[in-house]
Amino acid sequence: MHNRRVPRGLIGLLVILVLLLAGCVHIRQEVTLMPDEEWKADVKITFPASTVEQLGEEMMQDQDADFEEQTAEAERRGVHAEMEMRTEGNGDVVYSMKLEGSGYDLLNEFVFDSQATFSDAGDGKVQVNYDAGDMTAFAEMGGSYTLVFNAGQIHSSNATKTSGGTATWENPAEPIQIELTPGSPPAAGGFPWLIVILVIIGIVVVAVVVIGLLYLRGRRISQPGQ
Question: What is the pLDDT of residues 104-130, one digit of tens each?
């Protein structure tokens, strides 16, 4: 029987694991911040087939147990947590975790390994700072780390790219900084209602002009002596 320290956060667990490997791991975190400190997070962790082979069956089973323990601990703390593990056709092993909860302290603990800070920036805005630290090891060892923040509005950030209410970091080399207003992000690629409204207005204007011209023409034809 062996005892191993299980980090409180999912990412902390992965950082310790990857530092023991010569292989690569791909991690994608997507976090959505909503009003009243409500939040949800989707975490996807991919172990390439070569890394799975290097780890061996026993260590992979240990990782299964660790992730299950993290999921159970989250549930005990009031966070709704679901985990799914699947093996792809190419041998990659993928862990997908969905977490939903209330309170930034729990989000920080279970998703950011207590390395982030959430501050009130006034006017309903929230300032988030996160030092990814050892997460740079994933890129250095051939893996990758992607972090996505969704919110009602992104006011400023040092993200790799920003689109609407979504900010994305790819293998960040510097501490992550973002100021946002919590809320559901604008639907990306949603139905272009504004364009539709403008088109309808254009059609109405054209129809009014055409009807007016036809009316004037009809009056001239009916009054040939004028």
Answer: 999 999 888 888 999 999 999 999 999
Distance CA 188, CA 186 (A): 6
From the centroid of its chain, how far is CA 186? 13
Q: Which residue has the tokens 């911040």?
A: 33
Q: Are 65 and 38 in a shared domain?
A: yes
**Total-model pTM:** 0.73
Task: Tell me whether residue 224 is in a domain.
Answer: yes
Rounded Cα distance between 78 and 69, Å, is 14
Residue 3 belongs to a domain: no
- Interatomic CA distance for residues 82 and 42, integer angstroms: 10
Spatial distance between the Cα atoms of 7 and 215, rounded to a whole number of angstroms:
80
Q: How far apart are CA 94 and CA 81, in angstroms?
A: 16
Please count the structural domains in the chain: 2
d(CA 31, CA 40): 6
